[in-house]
């Protein structure tokens, strides 16, 4: 009986109508434009949901297990919106373990636990289904998207209080985690795509792609050909729905840092390790790692004649920008290497992603102290992800990463669908 669930899931949950015809010669993927809110440092996208469709501005969250929206204030009056009843196939897929009877009804509906990952607040919300519309990017004819409508898309409604701390106009959170009802998995089942998605964040316009590459910028550069791969970390005691990678060591200007390396592993309680986040603005280190990191960075900076100045909150180490040259990949500062499964596999962080301009004369090291006992020792934040393309392969449990696209004279803002039908509502 259990083996029939995926087939039922594909045939019942995801009915699709679209304006395209897919052929092997024209690979397609779903495209979502991503913008950065300057005041909150949050990365935002949108979906068109409901019948009739309503554009919804959403926070992009790699670690969130599903899409949730505030149904009361989103403007949705959708004829295709339906709550999901208990003991249904959809409840099983969503791994719901709680149900409730709404006022005035005699049947129980499934409940999820939507979380605002900015504030840490968790509430209860109904599991529901509705129609969404997405753009399909044709990589052989970039700039000419088509639109597909997906019926019975699973998500959760959440109360208005959960919107606190989110950027102005945001109506919910778009989850991209390793769950069956996160956006990537639902799209993969819908379109029979590869179970892959990629993010390319920017200080201006970035992108999310679901379905695999190639990832061709407007300049014609295919980034998928140059990706380096590392496995995601799994833990037999704790199912890691977020994206953890195996950072073995850190080097600054080639010199390996010395600190308690056990902090880099995920223990039996699910603590420690390194994860990737789109909701943390700047990379955070556990306090002892941060102390070692900043001390080594200051020494390396001194050897390059960089002049320190008083720190500017929230940063702990700052420099006079007049003493620092500029390069293709940002400020000419010590290169940071996150060494992964071997010394040959390194995520390189150049000046564009390590230094933050806080004034005309001051730039600061864009890494923060995460405290003495954080749940995760290293959280790679959004600023360090900008102008890096990351591909998340859910089938093989591998991360493909480009390091800075500026090295290839392109950037994440070069991924655009110029004739987007949804451009006015982003």
TrEMBL record:
Pfam family, one: TAXi_N
Residue ranges annotated for the Peptidase A1 domain, each copy included: 43-402
InterPro entries, per database record: Aspartic_peptidase_A1, PEPTIDASE_A1, Peptidase_aspartic_dom_sf, TAXi_C, TAXi_N, Xylanase_inhibitor_I-like
CDD domains, per the entry: xylanase_inhibitor_I_like
Compartments, record wording: Secreted, Extracellular space
Keywords carried by this UniProt record: Secreted, Signal
Protein's UniProt keywords contain Secreted: yes
Signal peptide: 1-21
Entry GO CC: extracellular region
Keyword Phosphoprotein: no
Protein family per UniProt: Belongs to the peptidase A1 family.
Stated name of the protein: Peptidase A1 domain-containing protein
Organism placement in taxonomy: Eukaryota, Viridiplantae, Streptophyta, Embryophyta, Tracheophyta
């Amino acid at each position: 009986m259990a083996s029939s669930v995926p087939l039922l899931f594909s045939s019942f949950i995801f009915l699709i109508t679209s304006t395209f015809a897919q052929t092997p010669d024209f690979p397609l993927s779903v495209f979502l434009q991503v913008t950065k809110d300057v005041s909150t440092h949050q990365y935002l996208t949108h979906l068109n949901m409901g019948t009739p469709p309503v554009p919804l501005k959403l926070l992009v969250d790699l670690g969130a297990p599903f899409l949730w929206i505030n149904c009361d204030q989103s403007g949705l009056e959708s004829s295709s919106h339906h709550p999901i009843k208990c003991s249904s196939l959809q409840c099983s897929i969503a791994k719901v373990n709680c149900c409730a009877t709404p006022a005035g009804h005699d049947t129980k509906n499934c409940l999820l636990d939507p979380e605002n990952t900015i504030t840490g607040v968790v509430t209860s919300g109904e599991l529901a289904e509705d129609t969404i519309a997405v753009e399909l990017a044709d990589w052989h004819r970039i700039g000419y998207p088509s639109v597909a409508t997906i019926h019975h898309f699973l998500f959760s409604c959440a109360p208005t209080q959960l919107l606190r701390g989110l950027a102005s106009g945001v109506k919910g959170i778009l989850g991209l985690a390793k769950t069956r009802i996160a956006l990537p998995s639902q799209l993969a089942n819908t379109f029979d795509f590869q179970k892959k998605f990629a993010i390319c964040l920017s200080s201006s316009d970035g992108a999310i792609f679901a379905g695999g590459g190639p990832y061709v910028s407007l300049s014609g550069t295919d980034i998928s050909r140059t990706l380096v791969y590392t496995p995601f970390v799994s833990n037999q005691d704790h199912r890691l729905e977020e994206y953890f990678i195996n950072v073995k060591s850190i080097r600054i200007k080639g010199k390996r840092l010395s600190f308690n390396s056990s902090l880099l592993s995920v223990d039996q309680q699910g603590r420690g390790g390194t994860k990737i986040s789109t909701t943390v603005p700047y990379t955070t280190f556990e306090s002892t790692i941060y102390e070692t990191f900043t001390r080594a960075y200051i020494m390396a900076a001194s050897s390059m004649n960089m002049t320190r100045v008083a720190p500017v909150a929230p940063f702990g180490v700052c420099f006079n920008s007049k003493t620092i040259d500029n390069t293709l990949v940002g400020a000419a500062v010590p290169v940071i290497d996150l060494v992964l499964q071997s010394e040959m596999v390194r995520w390189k962080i150049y000046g564009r992603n390590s230094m933050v301009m806080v004034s005309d004369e001051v730039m600061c090291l864009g890494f923060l102290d995460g405290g003495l006992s954080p749940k995760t020792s290293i959280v790679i934040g959004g600023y360090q992800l900008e102008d890096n393309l990351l591909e998340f392969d859910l089938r093989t449990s591998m991360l493909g990463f480009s390091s800075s696209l500026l090295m290839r004279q392109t950037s994440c803002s070069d991924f655009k669908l110029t004739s987007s039908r949804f451009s006015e509502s982003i």
